[in-house]
């Protein structure tokens, strides 16, 4: 079906445009034949409206001859032939319409008016059809452009999802390696602690795998997962590891699953683990209607050697945020006074479930 005639189409706009074309034609006809304004409008407006529906065929001509795939000579010849044929048919319709009006008691001679305006009508019809054809080509090009944009957006979303899956796959083995290494270290020194850590690790992995399969989870669940991870590490560090977690009333905010995992792991492995007296890992959240802010702070040794592991974790989180939110999210990291601080800001979205 023609887009103009389809449900939700632009039929009203189409009729308005062709009514204006009829008014213009009436002005031209008045200058060519001795007609009153009322008679000129009675002739021109119905003819223009009828020709407007006839010119809808230009859309099918344009669809049948795509500009990029059809030789220009063929386009020109076919367009000219279609316009001339349409104008000739319209001229015949005009003659019939003039005859109908003259029999209705009008004050003009139909034959005389037709003889004075036939060339004008033919030229006007020729131009109107070519204009309709140009509009059809513009509309088809716009439709193709929108379709290409939709395909590009779909491809971008699929690529983004693939990137997220890849980044998650990088995070999980990295954490598992460090955890198994810790258990191995405890096996000889404290077998009971190693066993307790194995059980905690099994529970943590089960929960993290379940959460990781979801696109978004609430901040409350993400913080709970971070707390369980820190419980595992406290088996190894004991009182040296102190934890502070505050949701700041943002429990219902939605976040990517496991987004805090690399940050908390870095806080332990590259922070507290290097401080003899231990330290505190603090996770704080705050939210506004527009943004959610997560802050992870940990004690650190300012004289510790640089490690590439922390950089990998931050890079993974930063890449996930970029894939999900583009420039609307950011991650910054800095050290001040023996405290390493990572701040993560992303658009705020809240769960509608109670």
Note the main sheet.
5 strands, mixed
Tell me the helix content. 55-70%
**SSE string, helices as H and strands as E:** HHHHHHEHEEHEEHEE
Q: Classify the beta-strand content into a percent band.
A: 5-15%
Q: Which regions have little confidence, pLDDT < 50, spanning 5+ residues? A: none
Task: Let me know the CATH homologous superfamily of the largest domain.
Answer: Histidine kinase-like ATPase, C-terminal domain
In short:
The chain is an alpha+beta fold and 354 residues long. The protein has 9 helices and 7 strands; from the N terminus they run H-H-H-H-H-H-E-H-E-E-H-E-E-H-E-E. The protein folds into 2 domains: 11-152, no CATH class; 190-347, Histidine kinase-like ATPase, C-terminal domain (Heat Shock Protein 90), CATH 3.30.565.
């Amino acid at each position: 079906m023609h887009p103009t005639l389809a449900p939700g189409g632009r039929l009203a706009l189409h009729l308005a445009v062709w009514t204006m074309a009829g008014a213009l034609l009436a002005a031209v006809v008045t200058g060519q034949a001795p007609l009153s304004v009322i008679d000129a409008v009675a002739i021109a407006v119905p003819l223009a409206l009828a020709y407007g529906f006839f010119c809808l065929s230009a859309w099918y001509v344009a669809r049948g001859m795509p500009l990029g795939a059809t030789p220009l000579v063929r386009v020109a010849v076919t367009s000219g032939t279609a316009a001339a044929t349409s104008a000739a048919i319209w001229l015949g319709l005009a003659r019939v319409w003039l005859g109908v009006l003259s029999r209705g008691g009008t004050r003009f001679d139909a034959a005389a008016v037709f003889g004075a305006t036939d060339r004008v009508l033919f030229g006007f019809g020729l131009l109107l059809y070519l204009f309709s054809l140009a509009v059809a080509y513009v509309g088809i090009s716009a439709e193709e452009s929108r379709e290409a944009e939709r395909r590009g957006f779909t491809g971008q979303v699929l690529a983004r999802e693939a990137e997220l899956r890849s980044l998650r796959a990088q995070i999980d083995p990295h954490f598992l390696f460090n955890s198994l290494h810790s258990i191995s270290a405890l096996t000889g020194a404290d077998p009971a602690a190693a066993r307790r850590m194995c059980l905690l690790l099994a529970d943590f992995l089960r929960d993290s795998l379940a959460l990781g399969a979801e696109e978004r989870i609430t901040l409350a669940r993400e913080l709970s997962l971070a707390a369980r991870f820190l419980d595992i590490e406290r088996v190894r560090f004991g009182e040296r590891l102190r934890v502070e977690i505050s949701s700041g009333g943002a429990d219902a905010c939605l976040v990517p699953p496991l987004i805090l995992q690399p940050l908390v792991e870095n806080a332990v492995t590259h922070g507290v683990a290097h401080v003899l007296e231990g330290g505190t890992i603090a996770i704080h959240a705050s939210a506004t209607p527009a943004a959610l802010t997560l802050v992870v702070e940990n004690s650190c040794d300012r004289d510790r050697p640089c490690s590439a592991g922390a950089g990998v974790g931050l890079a993974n989180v930063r890449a996930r945020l970029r894939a999900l939110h583009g420039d609307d999210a950011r991650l910054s990291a800095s050290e001040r006074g023996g405290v390493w601080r990572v701040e993560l800001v992303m658009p705020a979205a809240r769960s509608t479930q109670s």
